[in-house]
Automatic annotation (TrEMBL):
Keywords: 4Fe-4S, Iron, Iron-sulfur, Metal-binding, Molybdenum, Nitrate assimilation, Oxidoreductase
Any one Pfam family match given in the protein's UniProt record, by short name: Molydop_binding
Source species of the chain: Haloferula helveola
Protein name per Swiss-Prot or TrEMBL: Nitrate reductases, NapA
Family named by the database record: Belongs to the prokaryotic molybdopterin-containing oxidoreductase family. NasA/NapA/NarB subfamily.
InterPro entries in the record: Asp_de-COase-like_dom_sf, CT_Nitrate-R-NapA-like, MoPterin_dinucl-bd_dom, Mopterin_OxRdtase, Mopterin_OxRdtase_4Fe-4S_dom, Prok_molybdopt-oxidoreductase
Domain of life, per lineage: Bacteria
Cofactors demanded by this protein: Mo-bis(molybdopterin guanine dinucleotide); [4Fe-4S] cluster
Length: 740
């Protein structure tokens, strides 16, 4: 069957052949797609979620693309990664066949899919038989369609009977998820992008939009209200330089700063009474922030008391619309959840929520991190449900047509605890899908060390060459964006579709089809008989959201999503007043009725005392290392962006470290000199880039170079278990002459 399928690839591109196998006699008869002049897809990089228009040849192959002018997100704009989105598909290191490591020689050899599936099933089945359901885990992603994420999560937990699985969204969004869940009762980012254009004051916290979300920055630029743009970031980033006001905060000084703002706002009686009445915990909070005078926090925040007073006045001005937007400067912290909640609290007490141009808004990272949050079946159950909730388990079992006993009552270990269990020899097998943790995980040297403890490592990726793929016992070649269909959800909760416009190379299959083959090989295909193609899976997932805050039962099909320019959740089929309008408004924000998803309907004001940096600089390691995005042309571990000839021209090829010129002078470091940067965990070499964009005592290294996470310190937020990537102690020295 598989061979027949692969042979049929010589003909014109049809969605059914790429995507819908029917190889178990379960699928529908392939129907040819009529070649069209153009089709559309949401971009497969960041969570802005721009729509691209793909220009097709007569066989339906994409030959070029342009940004879609009529899409409400990008309005005809795209950043360099979007423009070059087709380039990574034709790289030489694309996986084209499964690769199996020969234990005798250590070499990887091509094998056919039947062999690969047999090895996969034998590997995980023997671990399960010997050590039980807790002895293996998957690590997945925010970068594949949510139909694929849900398939993986349901297959692993309900079909194959394992418990543990987490995703790279832990590295990225776990803090925002936990903060929203605790404060609002559901993981619900309230904004719609129009809010960028409708604010009077825009506060960007640890968010470098110009580099990381360039099209969102364009939306800020379209604001006609002459907004005040304030950036809170230790570095003078491209975004900070373009703002009206930059507050160069001490790293992790955020929490005391926002408590001090609340202190001033309460002291001056500038609260919004009606909004406060919709909260719980206000009286305790008022008592708590009394101690946080601007004077008392000015040392730890690095911000003068006077500036704090002015900022408090600006963000609480009656009649003004103030919006707060945060990204990794908040989420990746040892106290990220409370920091995000300190921002949420400021919005709640000043009434900056549920109205145009307001909101405590987390900006998401990956193209489908929001889809992962709802559907990955990792720490919450598919559809935003709770594994511990009996009614939820019954509902999910009913819709999936499986026995309720297939659904575990307990939740998975989080990412760091999965790896700790592997280190301890308790987890013996890992299945890594569409993420590259041997580069991106914090303190990645530890991951390399625990590799030897794993009995079985499977990596499923577009490329056989990533830092993780080359470690695998079994490599499964996956189709990428542009070669398959499904849906992404962007930062403003907008669901949009992607389409297959290129053949995947060789014997490569989409992740969806790989999961189908595994279900069959494991012997649980019956459970997934409805999951014949991504749109069928979409219907199952849509139905599962019924009566949840993210209810999307009003969406008919993919065509509906395309026709409407994407649809933001929620969009229920039934509303209190009757059937939903089939034409949702193009921009919708949450909490316009000040009704939250908690049991009481009120938002919770949550807070706790700030805590010390886990690894502050000292005499041996006198610098604090910041990490993050380097340029708008580089994406994460660079498996995709480094394959584009054009993008490669737009960023420095080798690792570089930004250091303040006065620090460089003190340590005898010349411009562009090779330097060694060391932490207690490892050393890397980089070229020195002297710039006052970092403060004295800090250095910055972009995350795109694989060595950087050999240095980072493995500390985590206690509530979200998100890694603290942006603060560890390092030292820096000129490298030996030989390295220059
Ligand atoms: N070009 C490009 N775009 C991307 C990505 C990419 O790899 N390349 N990745 C996407 C993903 S997955 C994500 S998550 C987003 C990330 O988007 P951003 O979060 O905007 O990017 P970062 O550079 O990681 O971090 C933002 C800023 O946080 C600051 N920061 C560090 N510590 C602190 C602190 O203690 N307080 C404050 N207030 N700020 C601090 C850093 O100096 C940095 O400028 O970008 C998305 N977009
Ligand atoms: N020091 C430091 N480290 C960081 C960060 C930081 O700011 N500082 N940021 C963290 C954050 S926010 C994030 S999100 C992570 C990102 O870290 P990763 O998720 O590890 O980075 P990516 O390079 O995006 O990895 C995605 C992988 O999936 C593959 N892939 C792409 N599309 C598909 C597909 O459709 N199917 C399959 N099977 N594979 C596919 C790609 O080839 C690539 O190998 O990094 C984290 N690490
Ligand atoms: S801003 Fe993000 S979604 Fe838009 S084109 Fe660039 S990478 Fe793609
Ligand atoms: Mo991310």
């Amino acid at each position: 069957m598989i061979e027949e399928l692969l042979k049929s690839r010589q003909g014109p591109l049809t969605e059914d052949l790429v995507q819908e196998p029917g190889e178990f006699g379960l699928g529908k008869v392939p129907a040819r797609l009529k070649p069209a002049a153009t089709t559309t897809s949401i971009c497969g990089y960041c969570a802005t979620g721009c729509q691209l228009k793909l220009h097709l040849d007569r066989d339906g192959n994409a030959i070029n693309l342009s940004p879609q002018a009529s899409y409400p997100v990008n309005l005809g704009m795209a950043c360099p990664k979007g423009w070059q989105a087709l380039d990574p598909l034709t790289a030489d290191d694309r996986g084209t066949v499964p690769l199996l490591r020969d234990p005798a020689t250590g070499q990887r050899k091509p094998v056919d899919w039947e062999t690969a599936l047999g090895v996969f099933v034998d590997g995980f089945r023997s671990i399960q038989d010997k050590h039980g359901r807790d002895a293996a885990a998957f690590l997945s992603t925010g970068q594949i369609p949510f139909e694929e994420m849900a398939f993986l999560g349901c297959l692993w937990k309900f079909g194959m009977g394992f418990l543990h699985g987490d995703a790279n969204t832990r590295q990225c969004m776990a803090t925002a998820v936990t903060a929203y869940k605790q404060s609002f009762g559901f993981d619900a980012p309230p904004a719609t992008y129009a809010d960028f254009e409708e604010s009077d004051v825009i506060v960007l916290v640890g968010a470098n939009l110009c580099i990381a979300h360039p099209i969102l920055w364009q939306r800020v630029m379209r604001n006609r209200r002459n907004p005040k743009i304030i950036v809170i970031d230790p570095r003078s980033t491209e975004t900070a330089q373009a703002a009206n006001l930059h507050l160069p905060i001490r790293p992790k000084g955020d929490l005391p700063l926002y408590y001090a703002l609340a202190h001033c706002i309460l002291r001056d009686g500038r609260i919004d009474e009606a909004s406060v009445a919709r909260t719980e915990g206000y009286a305790e909070f008022a008592e708590f922030v009394k101690a946080f005078t601007p004077q008392s926090v000015s040392d730890v925040t690095g911000i003068a008391a006077e500036t704090i007073e002015q900022l408090a006045a600006t963000v609480s001005e009656p009649g003004k619309r103030v919006s707060w937007w945060w990204t990794m400067g908040v989420n990746q912290s040892h106290e990220g959840v409370r920091t995000a909640q300190a921002i949420i609290n400021l919005c709640l007490i000043t009434g900056n929520i549920g109205r145009p141009g307001t909101g405590p808004n987390s900006i998401t990272g990956q193209c489908n991190a929001m889809g992962s949050r709802l559907f990955s079946n990792t720490t919450s159950m598919v559809g935003g449900h709770d594994f511990a909730n009996q009614a939820h388990r019954e509902k999910v079992a009913r819709r999936l047509g499986i026995g309720e006993d297939r659904i575990p009552k307990d939740t998975s270990l989080e990412y760091d605890r999965i790896l700790a269990a592997a280190e301890a020899g308790e987890i013996k097998g890992l299945w890594i899908v569409a993420t590259n943790p041997f580069h991106s995980w914090i303190d990645s040297g530890r991951l390399a060390a625990l590799r030897d403890k794993l009995e079985f490592l499977v990596v499923q990726d577009m490329y056989h060459s990533t830092e993780s793929a080359t470690e695998a016992d079994l490599f499964l070649p996956a189709a990428g964006w542009g070669e398959k269909s499904g849906c992404f959800i962007n930062s403003e909760r907008r669901i949009g579709t992607i389409k297959p416009v290129r053949w995947p190379p060789g014997q490569t299959l989409s992740d969806f089809r790989i999961f189908r083959l595994i279900a069959n090989a494991w012997g649980c295909a019956d459970m997934f008989s409805e999951w014949t193609d991504t749109e069928s899976a979409f219907r199952i997932l849509r139905d599962l959201t019924e009566d949840q805050p993210c209810d999307i039962t009003g969406i008919t099909d993919y065509e509906h999503l395309d026709r409407m320019g994407g649809i933001q959740w929620p969009f229920p089929a039934r509303t209190e007043t009757g059937d939903a309008d089939t034409e949702p408004a193009p921009e919708r924000r949450l909490f316009e009725d000040e009704n939250y998803y908690t049991d009481s309907g009120k938002a919770k004001i949550l807070f706790s005392p700030p805590s010390a940096l886990p690894e502050p600089p000292d005499t041996g390691y006198p610098f604090l290392m910041l990490t993050g995005r380097g340029t708008s042309s580089q994406w994460h571990t660079q498996s995709r962006t480094s394959k584009s000839d054009i993008l490669r021209k737009l960023y420095p090829a080798g690792a570089y470290v930004e250091i303040h010129p006065e620090d460089a002078a003190e340590f005898g470091i010349e411009p562009n000199q090779a330097v060694n940067v060391s932490s207690r965990r490892g050393t890397m070499t980089a070229s020195a880039y002297l710039a006052p964009t970092v403060q004295r005592g800090h250095i910055f290294i972009p995350m795109h170079y694989p060595e950087v996470n050999r240095l980072t310190h493995p500390s985590f937020d206690p509530h979200s278990r998100q890694p603290n990537y942006k603060a560890c102690a390092v030292t820096i020295r000129p490298a030996s002459a030989g390295h220059r």
